Amino acid sequence: GLPFTATPEDVLGFLGPECPVTEGKEGLLFVKYPDGRPTGDAFVLFACEDYAQNALKKHKEILGKRYIELFRSTAAEVQQVLNRYMSAPLIATLPTPIVPVIPPPYTIAAGSVRDCVRLRGLPYTAGIDDILEFMGDATGDIKPHGVHMVLNQQGRPSGDAFIQMKSSDRAFLVAQKCHKKMMKDRYVEVFQCSGEEMNFVLMGGT
User: Fold this and answer.
1) How far is CA 60 from CA 28, 147, 159, in A?
2) Do 8-86 and 116-203 agree at the fold level?
3) What keywords would UniProt list here (predicted)?
4) CATH superfamily membership of 116-203
5) How far apart, in whole angstroms, are the C-alpha atoms of residue 122 and residue 120?
6) Positions in the chain short of pLDDT 50
7) Are 58 and 128 in contact (CB under 8 A)?
């Protein structure tokens, strides 16, 4: 919800000294349409969890005359939003602090091994912590950084997520155990799938 006239200095001022951005202006990524017009979205890179948590406290505060919404994002979610707005590959033009987070060429997983699960019907307010709680004992079988939220056209949670498990056997067991289990007030469907299927959806397919 950024004003279209917002500058890097405006965003840094909005975040303030309690939320220092990695490399200052170099840690900001403004999302633009292919013709260069701003979309009103931006991503910010922080050096640690504490700074990111401080930034999230500014959710719905005002910049210019607009309420700004802030959401936690992963590298996969950054790439999803960029793919939707840009017609050309983005990796070569990302600011340097972002590149190590999204190694080129960008892939989350590959192949047809069914070592992932897809969650469908999540509450729109659900975050990664809610998903980990939902998974219960199986959280120990999730690959590091293996939880990926699927975003809609506005860059917000769509109600779907993918989780990379350590093996196809673990993915099968999780799908069996957690399918139709409740999260908050919703039944969540859980299906075993492959990294290839996950990549297809995260990169903009359905």
Assistant:
1) 19, 26, 22
2) yes
3) Repeat, RNA-binding
4) RRM (RNA recognition motif) domain (3.30.70.330)
5) 6
6) 88-107
7) no
What residue ranges do the domains of the chain occupy? 8-86, 116-203
| Per-residue DSSP letter, 138 | G
Selected from 2.60.40.10, 3.40.640.10, 2.40.170.20, 3.30.70.330, the CATH number assigned to the domain covering 8-86 reads: 3.30.70.330
Q: What is the DSSP letter of 20?
A: P
What is the per-residue burial (b if ≥16 Cβ within 10 Å, else e) of 73-99? bbbbbbbbbbebbeeeebeeebbebbe
In this predicted model, what pLDDT tens digit does every residue of 85-143 receive, in sequence order? 765 444 333 443 333 333 333 345 557 899 999 999 999 888 888 999 999 999 999 98
The count of residues in the chain is 206
CA separation, residue 23 to residues 20, 46, 53 (Å): 9, 9, 18
Bridge pairing between strands 142-151 and 157-165: antiparallel
| Assigned token pair, 139 | 């959280």
Decide: 154 and 78 in contact? Cβ < 8 Å. no
Tokens (6 digits) for 53: 């948590």
* pLDDT at res. 108: 53
Instruction: Give the integer Cα–Cα distance in Å for 86 and 32.
Output: 7
